[in-house]
Amino acid sequence: MKLFYQQVLSFFLVIVITLSIIGFSMMNFITRQAYDNTFSQLEGYADSMGHIALKKDPLTGRYQQIKPSFLDEFQQVMQVQNVTIRVFNEDNEQIYPESSLTPYSLREDVWQELKSGKSFRIQNDYLNNQPKLSTKEPYSSIMVPWFDGSQLKAVVWLGAKVSSTETTIKQAQQNSIVALLASVSAGMIISLVIVWFNLSRIKKLSKATKKVGEGDFSVRIDHKDNDEIDDLASDFNKMVESLKLSDEEIKRQETRRNQFMADVAHEMRTPLTTINGILEGLRYDAIPVDSKDKSIQLMQSETNRLIRLVNENLDYEKIRNNQIKLFKTKFDGTLVLENIVEQLSGNAKKKNNTLKLLSTEPVFIYADHDRFTQIIFNITQNAIQFTENGNVELTIYRVDKATRVKIKDTGIGMSNEQKRFIFERFYKADPSRNNVGTGESGLGLAIVYSLVNQHHGQIEVDSQANKGTTFTLTFFDLKSKKEVDSE
């Protein structure tokens, strides 16, 4: 069953059950109220009759009005109200209306209760073996004893036809039924509107979900934050935004992976082609004897290049999966930077760059010596690669409970967009240099970032396009590092 019909059926059942309970209660109340009104009216008549009938003659001391003439007059008045009267004397003999037959008397059990001062209310004297006021049709009646002090003087029995009361009840019931039917109709119309409104919002969610399933992450659902469906719409929008970012990231990673594979293929093809060509030449003695040593050196250089490409990938995977162990010690960081400057000076000269270390005094640092060297080497080599006819400067100095290293260049720099991704795997800030045969895989800065994080250090990048880049690395002291880990 569709949700629409389920909701409508639910609303319909709730409305019908609720209104049925209300209607049943109203019917009972109307019936009870109608009979209560009848009894109250009859009891009012009985009290009025009693006050008049029990007046004594001041001379004789007899009751003047308990006699047929008075009761006839009262009966004529009561006929207008469709009320019938019977009166019994203190001996349980019917004295009104008079009959030529044997006088009617009340049952003994009823009479005893009347003598004790109890009044009777009979809703329908044709039910439950009640005393009958008439043998022709049912009456709603009361029996009230009249006392003079503690002495019973008479009992009056007043009755109104049940049909009169039931007519009033039926009219009230008909009005109630009409009101209930109108309420059911109005409730169903309102329910249909509510169900349609809510289902239309759910359908929007359903359509939007299908679009997302088809790969459209631009879909959004308008909402007003009024209820749970609006909360669901808000969560849906957040989910789609997250999926969009994830999809974009997957596409970026896939693009970079494809580019990386193309770069690796290119980087490996060149040395492999060179090595294969030299081996062919050596095999067929096509290389002069005086050139063999140079050819072997070239093969060794190209082999080392291939090994570096493979090692960079293996190294990154180990670092990323926390499969390396750091052996931290305290050592002279200035000396490490001096060695790196010496190693890369040749590369800097090839690009007409000036590579220099601005620090001369020993500055001690707490880190893994080999990995620290790898970090500074990768960043410095990257700075040289993207700088021409410029400067690359290294600085190391102490700050509060830490050692800081800055590597500044005057190269091509980066935009804010490029800065967001430079530490991601396979990313290259300058794609135009992908195929220049440098052997760069796009893993250098990703390795740097992972190693700095494993040192619990910090790395910051400040760069502007065409103005250069500055990397700032902070390595905390042993005591400070423990404090950071405990926080």
TrEMBL record:
Histidine kinase domain span: 263-479
Gene3D superfamilies, A to Z: 1.10.287.130, 6.10.340.10, Histidine kinase-like ATPase, C-terminal domain
Transmembrane spans: 9-30, 177-199
Top-level EC class: transferase
Localization of this protein: Membrane
Coiled-coil segments on the chain, per record: none
Chain ranges of the HAMP domain: 196-248
Enzyme Commission number, as recorded: 2.7.13.3
Catalyses which reaction(s): ATP + protein L-histidine = ADP + protein N-phospho-L-histidine
Domain of life: Bacteria
InterPro entries linked: HAMP_dom, HATPase_C_sf, HATPase_dom, His_kinase_dom, HisK_dim/P_dom, HisK_dim/P_sf, Sig_transdc_His_kin-like_C
The protein's name: histidine kinase
The organism of origin for this protein: Holzapfeliella floricola DSM 23037 = JCM 16512
